[in-house]
Amino acid sequence: MKERWIEVVSEADEKQEARFKTWLSGEGIPFVSPGAEKAYQERVTLLKDAIQLKRTPRRVPICPSAGFFPIQYAGATMHDAMYDYDLLNVAWEKYCCDFTPDAYNAPTTVVPGKVLEILDFKLYRWPGHGVAKDNEYQFVEKEYMKAEEYQDLIDDPTGFFLNIYFPRIFGSLKFFEKLPLFPPMNEITCVPPAVVPFGNKEIRSAFKNLAAAGEETIKWRNAVHHINQSAMGKGYPAFSGGFTKAPFDVIGDSLRGTREVLMDMYRQPDQLIEACERITPFMVKSGIASCKATGHIMPFIPLHKGADGFMSDEQFRTFYWPTLRKLIIGLVNEGIVPQLFAEGNYNQRLEVICDIPKGKTVWWFDLTDMERAKETVGQVACIAGNIPLSLLCTAAPNDVELYCKSLIDMAGKDGGFILSTGAGMQGSKAENVKAMIDFSKQYGKYR
Amino acid sequence: MANALVDAMVNMKEPQAEAVAEKMLKSGEDPLKVLEFCRQAVEIVGKQFEAGKYFLPELILAGEMLKKISKMTKPYLKNEPEIQTKRLGKVVIGTVQGDIHDIGKDIVAFLLDVNGFEVHDLGVDVPESKFVKTIREVQPQVVGMGALLTVAFESLKSTVEAIQTAGLRDRVKIMIGGGGVDEKVRKYSGADAYGEDAMAAVNLSKKWTERRYSQ
Question: Helix A258-267 crosses helix B56-73 at what angle (to 10 degrees)?
Answer without folding.
Answer: 80
